[in-house]
């Protein structure tokens, strides 16, 4: 099955939900830093889980450019379909 | 218009709140006099030092000091120049020869600090389209070197051979890869399973660098580091190290057997664009390294001290980051920032100096009091340290295990 932004986005939200300590409503525009306030260790775990889910590598140097869940979904889609 | 310093307000407030509880500032200590590798005057009080990384106690070695004084007289206070211009003196060559002897390698390159050695190696060795694969708990100098370069950066879970294997397996087979490991991880004092990790890296065709900053001098038959003790010398492409721990002065280095290694002197910016080490520093380093090669008794005594402190603190009910003394770093776990600072402050008033460490330097949000042993600690000093830890825990209200 081909992964697209539409299939990836709900999967990412499922992976992020346990880290959503402030229980905010997750959307494609939710920001990791300002809305979810994830620390670097939590981000490391999340990245590792996403990598394992899709059997990909998300290089660390790519992460600062990804501010929202939607941008992350786009990046994952691009790598998966590389 | 905003003040550029405003972004640091949370840190300023956190520090002010901590000091308001009445503790001494753990990050603003002055050594008024230093008497030996294990003793100093701090706040007018005689203090046992057990947080210096001065593992082999070479800072006051008479031969080392004599070599430094002689070089100061003969070559002056500094080189005022880069290694590639006017900054390579006879002493810089001599210390590189001492390193080649110590490590049994064909090349050695000396940087002005250990931080710059890692910065230079990471930023230079892997470029665009290539990969650096590093342990999540890597030292800041490794992360900063990665940020400075253009390679893609991949992290694996701390000391997990399986995770390293999995991540290497996902990378393009033909792409250049550099796996970065440390012999001893300095925050918790745990060592890496280098035999397994190096084998996995080689299986995937990666080059391997091992940082032996906290292992040089007392791991392996020749004191080269954890990688020597693990028997993987033939498969390690680069060893990074420092003069600021076991060697007892300041400076950094990379050693290697790669036939093209010398080109790094031309392309490695943290090597080229800074002044070289002062002649007295390289003279002390060379003398110290030559003595470390044969320091078998000191090595043995350092291990005795490390095991004694670990088992002693554990028996008194302290929580230690490792089950046994894996290195000369014994990291004592504290329940939180305020408790950690209270305990550190009580120890300093009892005349014991340890390192306080906190996030983001520590993994998993831990607060630690890190002890690093010295081969020059006497057994009685280790007993005194243990006694004072118990007294400090009582003063600071730190609960101990039964």
TrEMBL record, chain A:
Coiled coil: none annotated. Gene3D superfamilies: ACP-like. Residues 3-80 form the Carrier domain. It holds the Pfam family PP-binding. This is Acyl carrier protein. It comes from Sphingosinicella xenopeptidilytica.
């Amino acid at each position: 099955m081909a992964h697209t932004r539409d299939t990836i986005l709900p999967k990412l939200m499922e992976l992020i939900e346990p880290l959503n300590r402030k229980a905010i409503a997750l959307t494609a525009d939710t920001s990791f830093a300002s809305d979810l306030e994830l620390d670097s260790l939590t981000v490391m775990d999340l990245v590792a889980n996403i990598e394992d889910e899709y059997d990909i590598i998300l290089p660390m140097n790519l992460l600062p450019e990804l501010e929202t869940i939607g941008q992350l979904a786009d990046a994952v889609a691009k790598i998966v379909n590389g | 218009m905003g003040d550029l310093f405003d972004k640091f307000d949370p840190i300023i407030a956190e520090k002010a709140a901590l000091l308001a509880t009445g503790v001494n500032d753990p990050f603003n200590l002055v050594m008024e006099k230093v008497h030996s590798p294990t003793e100093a005057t701090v706040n007018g009080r005689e203090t046992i030092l057990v947080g210096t990384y001065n593992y082999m106690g070479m800072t006051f070695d008479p031969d080392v000091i004599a070599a430094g004084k002689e070089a100061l007289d003969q070559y002056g206070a500094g080189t005022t120049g880069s290694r590639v211009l006017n900054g390579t003196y006879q002493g810089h060559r001599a210390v590189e020869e001492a390193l080649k002897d110590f490590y049994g390698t064909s090349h050695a390159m000396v940087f002005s600090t250990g931080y710059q050695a890692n910065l230079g190696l990471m930023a230079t060795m892997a470029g665009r389209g290539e990969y650096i694969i590093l342990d999540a708990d890597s030292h800041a100098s490794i992360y900063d070197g990665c940020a400075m370069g253009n390679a893609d950066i991949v992290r694996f879970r701390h000391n997990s051979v399986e995770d390293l294997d999995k991540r290497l397996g996902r990378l393009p087979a033909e792409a250049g890869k550099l796996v970065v490991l440390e012999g001893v991880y300095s925050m918790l004092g745990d060592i890496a399973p280098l035999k397994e990790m190096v084998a996995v890296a080689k299986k995937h065709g990666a080059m391997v660098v091992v940082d032996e900053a906290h292992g040089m001098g007392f791991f392996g038959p020749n004191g080269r580091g954890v990688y020597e003790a693990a028997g993987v010398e033939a498969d390690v492409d680069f060893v990074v190290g420092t003069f600021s721990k076991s060697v007892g002065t300041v400076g950094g280095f990379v050693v290697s057997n790669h036939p093209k290694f010398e080109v790094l002197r031309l392309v490695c910016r943290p090597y080229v664009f800074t002044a070289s080490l002062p002649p007295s520093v390289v003279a002390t380093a060379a003398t110290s390294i030559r003595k470390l090669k044969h320091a078998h008794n000191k090595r043995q005594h350092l291990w005795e001290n490390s095991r004694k402190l670990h088992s002693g603190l554990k028996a008194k009910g302290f929580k230690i980051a490792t089950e046994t003394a894996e290195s000369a770093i014994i990291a004592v776990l504290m329940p939180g920032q305020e408790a950690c600072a209270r305990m550190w402050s009580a120890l300093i008033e009892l005349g014991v100096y340890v390192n306080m460490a906190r996030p983001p330097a520590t993994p998993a949000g831990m607060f630690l009091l890190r002890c690093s042993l010295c081969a020059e600690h006497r057994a009685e000093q280790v007993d005194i340290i243990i006694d004072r830890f118990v007294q400090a825990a009582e003063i600071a209200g730190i609960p101990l295990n039964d």
